[in-house]
Amino acid sequence: MSPMTEEKKTEILKRIRNNNNLPSLSPLAVQLLEAASDDGSGARDLAKVIEKDPSLTIRLLKLVGSAYFKTVEPPVTIAQAVVRLGFKKVRIMALSLSLRDTFPMDEAEGIDYQLFWKTSLYRALVAHDFAHAVDAADPDEAFVAGLISEIGMLMLFAICDERDRQGFPGKDVSLQRVIAWEEANLGINHREVASFTLRRWGFPETLVESQKYYGFKALKRGLPPLSAVIELARLATEIAYGPTTDLHKLQQLAQDHLQLPSETVNTIMVSAFSKVEALAQQLLIQVDSQTDILAVMEKANGTLARINQSMETSLQGLLNHIDKHYRRTEESALACQEVLENALDAVVHEIRNPLLAIGGFAKRLTQQGEAKDREKEYAKIIAQESSRLERVLNEMTDYCEAYEPILSAENLVPLVERVLADFRAQETHGQVRIVSNLPPKPVLVSLDTEGLGRAVKRLIGHSLAMARQGADTVTVSVETGRETAEVSIKITDNGRPFPQHIRNALLDSNLSAKAFTTGLGLPLARKIIQAHHGRIEVDVQKERGNTVAVYLPAL
């Protein structure tokens, strides 16, 4: 620490001791804290303390009667509120209102008070629900700890001189960046300030201690469960309102330290938005949950876009590497395929967990009962995109799995008929007419029924998808070569010409990342057909129409 920052730290501690610029805790808040440590204090005593402040009493009654508490009939006295909700919960709510009133809400260049209290309330609600879900810490204590976990930021801002306030990073930035700036410029961070001040104010030692731990330190084994609860609630809040987008990391940590499943984390985070709105009015905080949820979904959408771009970039780099080091040498096609499959498997493992985290969160948003139409529609789009990417990853996994067909002499015609029957039964072809031209006599080939059926289904499905965009007929035929010892399955459509990356996916020439990110159904079909000692040919007409022909050895 430089002599200048050491001097600033000394000055800041001096101001705290002398209460210079630092708001004083209200007498009512002091009495509420004292009531917490008095075992003989009861509902009547608590009511007397709260009712000394008429304004607080009215706001507390409105708060207790809000949608958050779901009371059938709102209480008309503090005593009734205590009976319905319990001594501890009413005291916590009264203390929360009093703490909120302790600090100003003026506009300031270095700090956004509205954002601060909104995020504090969200963090408190998430901390409460995390603690309640795992029974690891007292939920009401977790609520207060979450509400005040960053209150030292307001304290430190109030103590700073005007010059330091202008550079104060008290907005939507990560805790690590805030603390790094404070220590570099002031010699002390706001968590240290909060610990010192809360102890002087008479807060319980468990709440004072919770200020000490943040980041991975808060997740160390042996610490009180409250530390992990508050840290994970803080991470959830940074995802909801701050710069963090790593939902998978939060879910993984919640599973490791609280044994909370991902679906529970999603449910708690989503429901907290509406709870914030239900409580915010009496805390004099401006909240628009719809705007906040849309902002979170925008972040989720951006994350999906980055996952998609990362996948394309990784795949294109991989294909360039294969083209340079394998295709232009005498290395066997088998070695090339092995490199491709190993690299695809690595891409799947890197992307799958973040993708599942975003997809699960988006699906939970679509199920939110009170969500507005716009929110549901946006969440639906995100869920569909995450499902598409998940489908691509599943196809990559299928592609990477070793495929060794168990061949036997079979009639090819019934296999094609079953595939066509599936499409007709599912009506997945829309308005496209499916025409079959199958011979009445058996056409024997050596085939693996399950594997070749998958390949044929992929090929026909793709032609039907192309036909929806303009063509109206897909014709599937089985033919026996008169001059060659081959049997063919031909799929002809009169849709728009296949783009180049589709031809490449079918023919394994000059593959591009685009061919992979639209799905590996076609390369997988080609892999299966090659394992049957077959081949694929593609005929694309200039104006309209495509034919994919699969040739298999005849028996």
Notable characteristics:
555 residues, Hypothetical protein af1432, Methane Monooxygenase Hydroxylase, Chain G, domain 1, 4 domains, five-stranded mixed sheet, 24 helices
Description:
The chain is α+β, with helices and mostly antiparallel strands. The protein has 4 domains: 19-102, no CATH class; 106-287, Hypothetical protein af1432, CATH 1.10.3210.10; 292-400, Methane Monooxygenase Hydroxylase, Chain G, domain 1, CATH 1.20.58; 408-553, 2-Layer Sandwich (Heat Shock Protein 90). The chain has 24 helices and 7 strands. The strands form 2 sheets. Strands 2-4-5-7-6 form a 5-stranded mixed β-sheet. β6 (535-540) and β7 (546-553) form a beta hairpin. α9 (152-159) crosses α12 and α15 crosses α18 (333-366).
CATH class of the largest domain: Mainly Alpha
**What would the principal axes of the Cα set say about the shape?**
elongated
> Largest beta sheet: what is the strand line-up?
2-4-5-7-6
Helix-residue proportion: 55-70%
Report the CATH topology name of the largest domain: Hypothetical protein af1432
What is the CATH architecture term of the largest domain? Orthogonal Bundle
Beta-strand residue percentage: 5-15%
What is the number of domains?
Answer: 4
- The overall average pLDDT, rounded, is 80
What's the name of the CATH homologous superfamily of the largest domain?
Hypothetical protein af1432
**What is the terminal separation in angstroms?**
83 Å
- Strand tally, please? 7
Total helical elements:
24
